[in-house]
Structures
1.
Amino acid sequence: MSYAMRMVLLAVFDAVIVSISFLIANYLRFEGDIPYQYTKEIPFVLPLTIGIHFISLYFFKLYRKVWLYASVGELISIIKALVIGSVAFYVVNVLVVHLDVPRSIYLISMMVSILLIGGSRFVWRLYNDNYMKKQPHQRRALIIGAGGSGSFVVKQLKHQRDAEFYPIGFIDDDPKKQRLEVLGVPVLGTRKEIAQVIRNYEIDDIVLAIPSAPKSEVAKIIDICKKTGARLRILPRVQDLIDGKISIQRIRDVDVEDLLGREPIKVDLEGIANYVEDKVVLVTGAGGSIGSELCRQVARFKPRQILLLGHGENSIYNIELELKKNFPDLAIEPLIAEIQDRDRIDDVFNQYRPNVVFHAAAHKHVP
């Protein structure tokens, strides 16, 4: 719906409420028996009060509000607009128009208008909060963290029918939040109950919404969640969400950095350029995933010679071919050797005299 159409519909709705409020005020003031001297003024009073109240509501930008997310701030704006509108109606009538309206009517009408206009806006908010139910395509999600970030996730997911997930509940270790609801979504337990909650509520996905938590804590929770069989997702950094760099649709899978239990180490490769330039560099375990990446990075800084040492002929051969293709001027020497063979390693050092050694030879699975 366009902004213009939305404003017209809201303005008509408010005009009806202001009119009804004025009529109710008269009914209450005279206990249902309204004297003729006042009823004959109603056709002239209604257009005046509707026009003045519309101007006041428009001035306070109430037709620019997204009532789906209405809060106390919007309620205060409604009260201010209707109070000022009622005062303006009284002043204009007394000083300019001179219609016969009892003074008590202004106050009663204002109170009824606040109740009906404010109430209608928040009924719409409550309706959307409570009745925008899970869509057939949405997966059942458990949100880890009932703080600001978790609330942000729930608010966005509940108001997007095309969202991939629908929030079923929260997990939070704060004892003060247990058995409570946040935005209509219950806190179902602490991290100790994650497995049980997954089973009881048939959860498909777990969304970690604790971006400010220490990496060690995140890693512990991930370890618990991995045992449940539910798909594990994680919220981007809060600052990225605030800056608009990442939308709620970009809730991502857990990656290796989330599993570290510590902040990832940032290697300043440019800072070691002088360290390896024109040097003989030995890389042990050069055929492995870590060793081969070290070879690629070291080769960028123009070493005099790079020694590729490893026990797997195929893997050493593959990285040798890759380096020769990408760095044709680089002197490359493949060396097949077991790192535990002391005599063979002594021969390598005696023959090639490496200036720098990157030791990447290790078992893949280290406890």
Note: The first strand starts at residue 139 and ends at 144.
2.
Amino acid sequence: MNVLYAEEKMVDETTWKKFIDHAIVRQQLAEITVRETIRKLKYLEKHGINLMTDKEELKKQVYDFFSKKLQEGASHSALNHYVKALNRWCKFREIDIKFKKYRETAKPRRIPLTNDLKKLMDTCKNRTPIDKRDRTIIFTLYKMGLRAMELCNLNLDDIDWINGTMTIRGKGGKIRYLPIPHDLLKGKNVPSLLNYVKYWRLDTDKKALFTTQKGRLSPVYLRSIIKKRARQAGIPWIHPHSLRHYYATNLLRAGVNIRVVQELLGHTDIKTTGIYLHIIETDMRNAVENPNLEDPLKLKPKRKKQHPPKNRHRWLKNKIKSVAGLEGIKGHHRIYFGQHMPDFSLCWFRRCSHVQI
């Protein structure tokens, strides 16, 4: 590719600024969404798509790119992120194009168990700033149910240490205030936020709560941290959002009202929260179908044990009569607890010696 041509087709800084203003003012997108959109568009630009070309050429280049990505094994959900970014760009350029989203297949959610999170926490037990930070991040994610972006956007000022609340900036710039569990806020034997901020936080960013050696923690870096710790723990399928799934199902299993769970998770539509109810219904189905549950119809009748009555002499006399009647023997008879036994294993009932048949 000609270098000069590549430079000419790149979007200049002035155009990017106009796009940002258009996205925030007219499309009413949050700043976080705008940043992610620009990142996707620059990735497309880097891979040979001319964002400033005409309508037909843009469609051709985009679908060629999507075709290549599908052959490489990209998922439909991954391509839909580029589709949304391109549609926002087309609105800005006032081009009559709307790329259709690919149909996504719903994958079953894999919810980590409490034992899995214990293994994850055990991978960062060393007394180093990195291990202390990672341990506090994991603890915060499954205690508060935050999204990756919400955790990365946390500032030191977002924590109200007196009232025990946290300010969360969620999707679409929406703000919600959540209570912080006491053990997460100021716990002594757990990786609390107070202990992390006071002794282990890297002071590379003045505002950010969670930092790296270069500054504020990013969602991409957060994902790499969790994936690395998950591989060390032998559970490589866990990612940051898995801890949010654990938080939601843990609340519902504990009997918390679904409306309360909706507010804690920051869901606009309760149907989104209702997804986790299907998991609870599966638990209920497995519970009622448990083969270890007792069923009166499946119980085998137990043999009744013969206990001697209070009048033991009459009971013994009846037993001896039944045995003697079988063999036509009169007189004293050798028995073993009322049953006729072979000669080599018989014993005498001395107490029956006076019983006459």
Note: Residues 1-8, 327-357 have pLDDT under 50 and may be disordered.
3.
Amino acid sequence: MLCKKSDEKIVHVDILTPKQVLFFGKIIEMLKNKDIKVYVTSRRYREVIQLLKLKKIYPSIVGVHGGGNLESKLMASTKRILGLTKILSKIKPKVSVSFSSPETARVSFGLGIPHLCVNDSPHAEHVAKLTIPLSQKLLTPSIIPTHVWLRLGATKEMIVKYRGLDPVVWVKGFKPNKKVLDQLKISTKKPIITVRPEETYAAYLLKKSLYKKPLYIEVVKWLLKKLKKDVVLVVLPRYTEQLKNLRKIFGKEIILAEKVVDGTSLLFYSSVFVGGGGTMNVEAALLGVPTFSFHPSRLIYVENFLIQKGLMEKILNPKTLSEKVAETLKNLDKIKKMQRLKAESLVLKMENPAEVVVKTILSYL
């Protein structure tokens, strides 16, 4: 049922990616604890649907992921705008919240609903330009300079900064669950190297790869060549296409997560994390796991911050990366202990972004 009582205060939250499931999941919980009704929407996207189910969040599914080319992205976004328009015009939320969802920003603006935009990724310029100018507030980590957001359509007055990184929302106070090891049929007897491929469908990376083949394929090849059978190599694919490629090329040489797992627990038990994306790189670093980034975009603010803090290294050459991982494993206990202490100290000093987001939401109710 989409109809609502006239005096009911509803908050609309749009969830589009796995990171947003974890980030907004805590915010939804905090709002519900205050007896505030939350209406959640999402889109059909393999990892998101599975993770929502894992976290017991049950949204209305509106539209699909647009895939890997600009035309399909535009078509999917257009259809999603129509679907969200029908829903939001009926439930009439007091405020909408998203992590730069172009569809939610556009529909909210069109229906006169305040839109709060959360964003820590100014390098993703396309979605930033489509959402920030249509939003009432932009909530973002304080490490990102104000002038960066002004260039993307923000005003100084709309920016709300928090002294923390987004994964602090679910990393602070986190307790790992060993069930993830059973699910993947692995143990900690051998070092666990977890690999997360880069985005291959994101608009900001289309046509920008320096490699003919996806970089994650070369990274896995070199890790296997350098480390041989001395480690357990776990790979967490983003898309069905990546999953099929990995299965075809590497077969039983790697542990392939064919379904979404408790990624935070897996990172906790990992000896080293090698990531081509953003969120899991930050998450691993904040958990104190030795973290190596092969993110193919230019250096980004959050990544640069963690590199400066000694919690992450960026290496784009797969051979060099594999050599650095091997070197780390030789002194793993010492390195990991040092990384954990640095990470714990940093996280303790950080503000919880969820508290800032909830406080801002409440100001609109």
Note: The two ends are 22 Å apart (CA to CA).
